[in-house]
Amino acid sequence: MPAPIRLRELIRTIRTARTQAEEREMIQKECAAIRSSFREEDNTYRCRNVAKLLYMHMLGYPAHFGQLECLKLIASQKFTDKRIGYLGAMLLLDERQDVHLLMTNCIKNDLNHSTQYVQGLALCTLGCMGSSEMCRDLAGEVEKLLKTSNSYLRKKAALCAVHVIRKVPELMEMFLPATKNLLNEKNHGVLHTSVVLLTEMCERSPDMLSHFRKNEKLVPQLVRILKNLIMSGYSPEHDVSGISDPFLQVRILRLLRILGRNDDDSSEAMNDILAQVATNTETSKNVGNAILYETVLTIMDIKSESGLRVLAINILGRFLLNNDKNIRYVALTSLLKTVQTDHNAVQRHRSTIVDCLKDLDVSIKRRAMELSFALVNGNNIRGMMKELLYFLDSCEPEFKADCASGIFLAAEKYAPSKRWHIDTIMRVLTTAGSYVRDDAVPNLIQLITNSMEMHAYTVQKLYKAILGDYSQQPLVQVASWCMGEYGDLLISGQCEEEEPVQVTEEEVLDILESVLISNMSASVTRGYALTAIMKLSTRFTCTVNRIKKVVSIYGSSIDVELQQRAVEYNALFKKYDHMRSALLERMPVMEKVTTNGPTEIVQTNGETEPAVLETKPPPSGLQPTSQANDLLDLLGGNDITPVILTAPTSKPASAGGELLDLLGDLNLTASPASVPAPQISQPPFLLDGLSSQPLFNDIAAGIPSITAYSKNGLKIEFTFERSNTNPSVTVITIQASNSTELDMTDFVFQAAVPKTFQLQLLSPSSSSIPAFNTGTITQVIKVLNPQKQQLRMRIKLTYNHKGSAMQDLAEVNNFPPQSWQ
């Protein structure tokens, strides 16, 4: 059989292929020749054939048939054969294949070989693909080599020990004696791998971490090594861009960060050296920036002095001026993590951060936007909002929703005056109205309603803002509501804050009729406009007949919602005209209730009027039911019904006591005389059948689960159970998961149902949803449906994500029939 071609010739031949098909043909032909050679047990060219096979494997072609040939090469006595054999084993074998166990004895023999290079090959292979069984069998040999005086073998043995610890953590103590003298080595390769080994041990075992802090006095040794690296002169062997061994410096800084975390003594011992590294490292090259970045992370993670933390933030501030986009992004991300703990120090770099909003890179823009919102406070609100509003004008569409939401939250928290607050939100609605969240309109209406002295100014500004432009629907909705509510102030010209405009009743109605007939107007917007026109019938005097005509026209609209409104308003004119002025009088001041911490929503038989359930008893003198307006706008209800709150109490001993009363404060263990009179009648069937039988029948498998919400990485799933004791009770378990790369915190789930249902929302399992779907939040909803009507629900989700407060509404109408029939 002729000698096979060399690897170099094969590479040259494959590179001449003009098409993928031609390359495949060459590979197949060569693979056939290699297989024939393997079958003939040709020992002469086995090494060459395996080398060619590895090249084909690197190109993506199958090479598994060469696995046993690799084992034969490893068993060979020639170093060239062993080298290719071990390389093939690392590429073609892994612990999922039993073949790799056949090489355990060969590796053990080679670890005890007289030649250091053969020992090095065995250590590399074991450290690359050794399974837990191999690591247990060979850990003793690795530990012996870790104590040898040969630096070439010690560095490889240290890395192999890292792999052994990862595979079999209980073997960690075996390597503890060998680590005592590792940091006294002068060879940088041994020092580097030793630091990696110590880092792995500290990260995996709190006991090891405590041992190295107290018994081994590891911090002073690391400080000494790091100081020598900084102060040492030029060393051509370790110099990278004028810095001595930056890779070792970075590894030492990471280990110091682990040792100093939550430990005062260790942090104190490393403060001085960290200050030296931060001030003596050259920043003109990327190598120096890498060391400085690790230094900053270490300073921020340990219990460092305040002056050192300011120095670290100033380093990040210098990074923001760097031309490299990656360094600027890293600086913004780091500042965003530290802004809560060192707010004043980060504030000094506010102008540089704001300049990053103009960067062309979208990743830098997003980080700069998030950091800018984190820096907003009562002192800089005007300047920061000016910059952020300018950014909102010019930014890409994907930024507008988050930016608008951030501006709303900042303005609500730090507004210097109500006029400024109203102007700012109107500016956002004018600029990015179609991108704002659903709650922007009711929030602005509430703000305007509560600012009584600003009514004339606001309605005039809104009137001007929508003249001829109906593209921003939320702005048009607010303007329609205000013109209906304060139309009399608009035509009277009572505005004192700016020059009043002369507007007639006819012109106001022209605008609202234009909104009704505009193709850009959504159904909701038309509803706002029609209601506004109806309200003006009690505020205007000369155009009542025109208003009647407009309302009667829409009594036959194809839009059912608009038609229903028009028919009801017509009835007001014809049958109940004496009540019209009272029904359409100006809205009272709205109270906004904010709550902190976890909340629960208790649903009574009002049309979607939820309430916040306090986890602690309310202070005396306060009415808990005043919180019933928390989700008043969730389904757009106009009437408020009494709300009964249920607070978590200790469960009665009986099994029936575990079924929490869905109607309120019903004490299952008290006598009837001691039960407080409820505000809503309590159906007697809630108490029927409370016995020791299971509370819920196991028919969950028969009721399919549904996905109630899936958006922006957040997924809400509903699963169902039915109560044995009361078939009218459906128990819904929600599971919230997060597929994004960052955790969602402060998660609050709220729900509302129509008045024919009653709802109780129990406490969630957590308020934080882990990233990458690594965990879920569960929460239980109990729904009483005595009339067996189709279940409908609207949900409200609020959480913090990527530094921004998120809020969204959704309707759930796809409940399976088995859950309510």
Walk me through the topology.
Elements: H1 7-15, H2 20-39, H3 46-59, H4 67-75, H5 79-92, H6 104-111, H7 116-129, H8 132-146, H9 151-167, H10 188-204, H11 206-214, H12 218-231, E1 239-240, E2 243-244, H13 246-260, H14 264-280, H15 286-301, H16 306-319, H17 325-338, H18 343-347, H19 350-355, H20 362-375, H21 381-394, H22 397-414, H23 418-432, H24 440-450, H25 455-465, H26 473-492, H27 505-517, H28 523-536, H29 544-553, H30 560-574, H31 577-583, E3 602-603, E4 696-697, E5 706-711, E6 714-723, E7 729-738, E8 745-752, E9 758-761, E10 776-784, E11 793-801, E12 804-812
Antiparallel strand pairs: 1-2, 3-9, 4-6, 5-6, 6-7, 7-10, 8-11, 9-10, 11-12
Helix pairs in contact: 2-3, 3-5, 4-5, 5-7, 6-7, 6-8, 7-9, 8-9, 9-10, 10-11, 10-13, 12-13, 12-14, 13-15, 14-15, 14-16, 15-16, 15-17, 16-17, 17-20, 20-22, 21-22, 21-23, 22-23, 24-26, 25-26, 26-27, 26-28, 27-28, 28-29, 28-30, 29-30
Family: Belongs to the adaptor complexes large subunit family.
Protein name: AP-1 complex subunit gamma
Keywords: Coated pit, Cytoplasm, Cytoplasmic vesicle, Golgi apparatus, Membrane, Protein transport, Transport
Care to describe what's here?
- It is found in: Cytoplasm, Perinuclear region; Cytoplasmic vesicle, Clathrin-coated vesicle membrane; Golgi apparatus; Membrane, Coated pit.
- Keywords: Coated pit, Cytoplasm, Cytoplasmic vesicle, Golgi apparatus, Membrane, Protein transport, Transport.
- One of its GO terms (biological process) is vesicle-mediated transport.
- Residues 600-622 are annotated as: Disordered.
- Its main location: cytoplasm.
- The protein is of the alpha+beta class.
- Among the domains are: 438-584, no CATH class; 706-819, Immunoglobulin-like (Sandwich).
- Helices cover 50% and strands 9% of the residues.
- The protein is built from 31 helices and twelve strands.
- Strands 3, 4, 5, 6, 7, 9 and 10 form a seven-stranded antiparallel sheet that branches. Strands 8-11-12 form a three-stranded antiparallel sheet.
- Strand 1 and strand 2 form a beta hairpin.
- Helix 21 (381-394) packs parallel to helix 23 (418-432).
- The longest helix has 20 residues, at 20-39.
- The radius of gyration is 36 Å and the shape is elongated.
- 39% of the residues are buried.
